[in-house]
Amino acid sequence: MRFSPSVSIAAAVLYSLMTAFLTQVHPLDGLFALFVLISAHGRWRVVFLRMLKLNIFIVFICLTVLLFHGDRGHALLIFFRANLITAVNVALFTGYTADEFYYGFHALRLPDRFTVTLFFMVKYTEILGKEYDRMKEALKVRNFMPKTNIFTYKTYAYLAGMLLVRSMDRAVRLSQAMRLRGFSGRLYPFNYISFGRSDIAVIGMLIIQSLFTFGGIV
Question: What is the pLDDT of residues 100-123, one digit of tens each?
Fold first, then answer.
């Protein structure tokens, strides 16, 4: 089940704010997260791998709180809150392109300067990611095997330097291309993703979740 970008963005922000200020986590606080994860049934593998990577950082923070402050309850609270928030955000946004993010923010009537800046930031991150993958493939073709030696460190330093140089070159070319197309600080989307039944379902579940969280319905 896919939701429209505008509804996904609004739901992710509201649920994240709602969960971030919880002083204790009840099982029913994960109702919305469970619904969103079930809705992402076709993308479970990607969602699981991303959650696994993010949990490395979350567990590190929790261990820091536990070891330096000895506060087990606070560490568990951080762990559960962070996992609920990341689960919803990863499940909602996995598979979205930069264009779809822009359509979502544009549909929410946010300022053009903000939406355009965010669009180029996401788009440029994708471009740099592809450039980095190409450079890694070039190293593999040359039979590069990373080791703990000076040669490996120098290779990665050259890789970072080349990525910086190429990113600056791409930025100049992108700027020139946008000027030639008459860019004046605003983009005009053509392919809006319409509001559907799935969006009604996610809004309904968010309302139910807010009733459980703030309405004292337990």
Answer: 777 888 788 888 888 888 888 877
Question: In this structure, are 47 and 120 located in the same domain?
Answer: no
Alpha carbon distance 40, 47 (integer Å): 8
The C-alpha torsion from 11 through 17 and 23 to 27, rounded to 10°, is 10
The CA-CA-CA angle for residues 135, 141, 123, to 5°, reads 25
Residue 151 lies in a domain: yes
> Does 9 lie in the same domain as 96?
yes
Q: Is 208 exposed, middle or buried (0-12, 13-18, 19+ CB in 10 A)?
A: middle
On whether both 25 and 86 belong to a single domain, the answer is yes
Contact status, residue 47 vs residue 37, Cβ threshold 8 Å: yes
- What's the half-sphere exposure (Cβ side, CA atoms, 13 Å) at 149? 5
Q: Give which of 173, 110, 46, 138 is closest to 118, Cα–Cα.
A: 110
Whether this prediction's pTM lies above 0.90 is answered by: no
| Count of CB atoms situated within 10 Å of the CB of 105 | 20
Burial class of residue 118, CB neighbours in 10 A (0-12, 13-18, 19+): middle
The boundaries of the domain holding residue 65 are: 5-101+192-214
